[in-house]
Amino acid sequence: MMEIIESKHWIEWIITIAKFAFAFVPILFILLLIPMERRGAGFIQDRQGPNRSYIKIPYFGRIRLFGWVQNACDGTKLFFKEMFAPAGVNKWIYMLAPAIPFAIVLISPCVIPWFAPMVFEFGGQVIKIPGMTVDTEVGILLLFGLSSLSAYGAVLAGWASKSKFSLLGGLRTSAMTISYEVCLGLCLMGMLLLAGTFRIDEIIAWQDANVWGIVAQPVAFFCFLIAMIAETGRAPFDVAEGEPELVAGFHTEYGAMQFGLFYMGEYSHIGINSILVACLFLGGYSIPFVSMETVQSNLGISLGVLCGVCAVAVLAFLHLLYRYARWYKTCKASNKEVILREYSLYKILGWCAVVVFAVLGVLSAVFIHPEVQMVNGEAVYGIGVALGTALIQILVLLVKAVFFCWVWIWVRWTLPRFRYDHVMHLGWKILLNIAILNLVVTAIAAKLLGGN
Amino acid sequence: MLALIYFIILAVIAVGGALCVLFARHPLYGALSLVVSMLSLAGIYGLLGSPFVGVVQVMVYAGAIMMLLTFVIMVLNGARDSRTPRFDKVSLFVFPAVIVLGGLLGVALVSTPFAFDAGTLRGSVALTSATLFDTEASGHGYFILFEAVGLLLLSAMVAAVLMAKRRLGTTDETEGGEN
User: Fold this and answer.
1) How far apart are CA B121 and CA B59, in angstroms?
2) How far apart are CA A128 and CA A119, in angstroms?
3) Helices marked H in chain B — which ranges?
4) Is residue B101 situated within a structural domain?
5) Which of A70, A227, A280, A365 is the most exposed place for a label (fewest CB within 10 A)?
6) Is A141's CB within 8 Å of B77's CB?
């Protein structure tokens, strides 16, 4: 036991254990995605979306936080509802089924690299820490294996509910998972062929050195995106829970937090898939046009730019607020006093944030000058620089992932639903063929151009 | 030491799952126990230094093939399925086979020297691909075998589709393997 503990420096152990916290990133994505989806749907359908619940605080009045309070209320309601099982269900499997997708969501982020491998000097030795929680060479295959398991949740739920609608939903889920996973794997193969590895961090390094995957493999990217959306089982591919046909598909008989687990599992699945697409085709944590060495040697300025970007984002938010406020002042809405009062809080917070970001940015640009040491001909920095770079890279990855989350929502509320046979036709007869063709062409091109 | 503890946990789950497949009354429970058994087998593969084989086990067997199997079980789900007797005439053939196989395995295990180093990589990606496809190192045996198995699976799939089509008279979209 002792030799395992002593094989690593204590700071390495701390960071390695701290990386387990990344397992909760998809769960945090739920907090972002559910309000984003409901208000996004409202935005696309030209309505307000759910934003009526509020917290009452002194002076500023009713604070609605752009619909977050409403979602918190809905979540709390689900949490405290009675767990109810209809008569005749298969108790054990009925209880177990919602936990499967959610448990897998907690495991699957283990192979996603959140930052480039950290190399830093600490206590007289050079320490290397990989960006993913589980540093394995099978990388992305593990992710695919796990995500193929998560369909068992829906299938078992459909079977255990002893309802015809649920059973049909479960059947459709299993059929769709199998058909679209084939396509997903084949689209991925082109990218793996170019990078010559299963490790996601090496795929990102390849994209950093050459071009982003979306440029190198545009056809695979679109097939991959379609298959991904189909695999999460969302509209326009939500035949498994199509409301007009199957009531609610496999979770017809579920209520309270059991339904909530399915719901959360779906949204975290979207989060993981967005991160995956960002890693495979959008360069993951790599910053376009800026190499990691540049970031590290000018860490102060890089952090300053990061703070500047945050400040500009807050300014854009303030601009929106001021426009809304001006519109409310002229309109005849009966509650405009309340809303303007609420907005004044956001304005104060926004301006404070702008000032804080600006001060932080200037301070870091002026005062942070990393000291470089040369070890074996490589520039090695201290732990502060390594953590700062990791922070920038995590933020870059998350921004790319959130963009794809928006694509998911956008597609869902724009396109009409496919019929079941159309989905199967698309999967087996169109997407699969395109993916195979793409793979063959990529292989020939890579061979001719002298790749591995 | 740590590897041994993991191995014992996984082995108990794997053997328990396999026994449940034998004794389960409902086919779906059998399929589920098989999935559990396969997952812990994948864990054992990883413990033996072959993470690639383990992950392929999860992806192909637990993910795809067992999913197809549950699909079939659910389609053929009848009321009598839940009253399938635990032992019937087929068991007369199954049990001697299981006992003989167990005996053979036991003899093989006892007769081989039990030296095991958990640190070595036996089935890494590079090693597996070199064994399968590097014609200079391992001759062309595995390469041709691999292609032949691929062709065999393809022809089996085509035959299955044709048979299903002839019987139903319509196209069956759910047909097709993980190939």
Assistant:
1) 20
2) 5
3) 2-23, 27-47, 51-56, 66-75, 91-111, 125-133, 135-138, 141-168
4) no
5) A365
6) no
Q: What is the pTM of this model?
A: 0.84
Residue B143 domain flag: yes
A vs B: CB pairs below 8 A: 85
| Sequence letter at residue A326 | R
Q: What is the pLDDT of residues A283-306, one digit of tens each?
A: 888 888 877 777 777 788 888 888
The pair of three-digit structure tokens given for residue A433, joined into one six-digit string: 């063929």
* Token pair recorded at residue A65: 């936080």
Q: Provide the residue ranges of all domains of chain A, joining segments of one domain with +.
A: 81-286+372-448, 290-369
Total domains in chain B come to 2
B5 touches chain A (CB under 8 A): no
CATH number of the domain that B68 lies in?
1.20.120.1200
- Residue range(s) defining the domain that contains residue B55: 1-81
DSSP state of A23: G
Chain A residues near residue B130 by CB distance under 8 angstroms: none
- Asked if residue B2 and residue B77 are part of one domain, the reply reads yes
A418 inside 8 A of chain B by CB = no
**B104 Cα to chain A: minimum distance (Å):** 33
Q: What is the pLDDT of residues A353-402, one digit of tens each?
A: 999 989 988 888 888 777 777 766 667 777 778 888 888 889 889 999 99
- How many CA atoms, within 13 angstroms, populate the side-chain half-sphere of residue A158? 30
Look at B67 and A177 and tell me if their CB atoms are within 8 Å.
yes
